Amino acid sequence: MTGLVGALEIGGTHVSAGRVDVGQSRLDPMSMHRIPLDPRGSREDLLRKIVAAARELRLPAIATWGVATPGPFDYDRGVSHIQGLGKLDALFGVDLRERLAQDLALARPEQVRFLNDAHAFVLGEWWAGAARGHARTIGVTVGTGLGSGFLANGELVASGPLVPPEGRLDLVPFRARAVEYSLSSRAIVGAFSGAGGVIEIARRAREGEPSARAAFAAFGSGLGEFLDPWIVRFAPTCLVFGGSIARAWDLFGGAFLEASPAAKGLDRCSPADRLDEAPLLGAALHASRSQSDAS
Q1: Do residues 209 and 183 both lie within one domain?
Q2: DSSP 8-state assignment for residue 95
Q3: Is residue 124 part of a domain?
Q4: Is there a single domain that holds both residue 143 and residue 255?
Q5: Is 41 in the same domain as 83?
Q6: Which residue stretches of 115-260 are H helix?
Q7: What distance in Å separates the CA atoms of residue 89 and residue 83, rounded to the nearest whole number?
Q8: 267 and 144: one domain?
Q9: Rounded to an integer, what distance in angstroms lies between the CA atom of residue 49 and that of residue 71?
Q10: Global pTM value
Q11: Are residues 105 and 141 in the same domain?
Q12: 102 is in which domain, residue-wise?
């Protein structure tokens, strides 16, 4: 695989973009940029900013584009099914592939390929980050929600007895309710006795505030309890964490490992090496592979 691929990551509050040289497994750091999104913005406002992020990368040499997006989403057709989640609702039903192809003057809509953002993250870390060289890897993203990806020899595993339905841990209940109630930023905020968001709570925890430290410890213990049986089942050698809460590994990692005996036996269990870049790298690799398979 060679050539430049344009990569986008559409999140609930931002769209990131960067140019990836797939032959070198490298994202050009000078090309990477982020544009804020209003999660409750209008359809045209969201589309305008997504297209603007892509246009900043546009070069004649870029004929393939990879886009990482949260679900629910029709990744084959490029149509958003996000609705009622308090983020990007205005994109529901939008043919994002057609819009990007038109605004980027691409010859065919199929030049734009889509991938789940958590899948893109773990694929990027396997290709050029913490999971490089590992035959079996689990990637978990933790932030406003929880995402996951299971990789075997660089290929996503989304079905079968070793993984949850669709390879999505967010579909697995935990403590008799949806897992994201217990294992997300809302859970950390809810467990803290004071006021403030996750960034503020992390600051207080690092300063030694007991309630803040306890909130992250409870999160780590719950995450370890939840993931341990899936680590045993899938038998990876690497578990890598992404998402905004991964930046607080120093605050929850110890509690996580205490609650997950299986994680202690892994060759590597850590935050991502390419926390910001991994979803872009994974989206670009997926797009490049898809174009190669189609040719």
Answers
A1: yes
A2: B
A3: no
A4: yes
A5: yes
A6: 117-128, 185-191, 198-206, 210-234, 249-259
A7: 5
A8: yes
A9: 19
A10: 0.94
A11: no
A12: 4-119+277-294
User: Would you say 262 and 238 are in contact if contact means Cβ atoms under 8 Å apart?
Assistant: no
Can you list the pairs that 178-184 forms with residues at least 24 positions away whose Cβ atoms lie under 8 Å?
179/146, 179/226, 180/145, 180/146, 182/222, 182/226, 183/142, 183/146, 183/219, 183/222, 183/223, 183/226, 184/142, 184/143, 184/144, 184/145, 184/146, 184/245
* Residue that is written with structure tokens 């929600």 in the block: 145
> Which amino acid is located at 140 in the chain?
V
Beta bridge partners of 16: 9, 34
Neighbours of 31 (CB within 10 A): 17
Token pair listed for 74: 């029709």
CB 283 within 8 A of CB 9: yes
Round the average pLDDT of the chain to a whole number and report it. 93
Q: Quote the tokens at residue 223.
A: 């995450």
pLDDT tens sequence across 192-237: 988 889 999 999 999 999 999 999 999 999 999 999 999 999 999 9
Which CATH number goes with the domain that contains 72? 3.30.420.40
**Are residues 97 and 154 part of one domain?**
no
How many other CB atoms are there within 10 angstroms of residue 76's CB atom? 9
Q: Which residues are bridge partners to 174 per DSSP?
A: 177
Count Cα atoms within 13 angstroms, Cβ side, for 244.
17
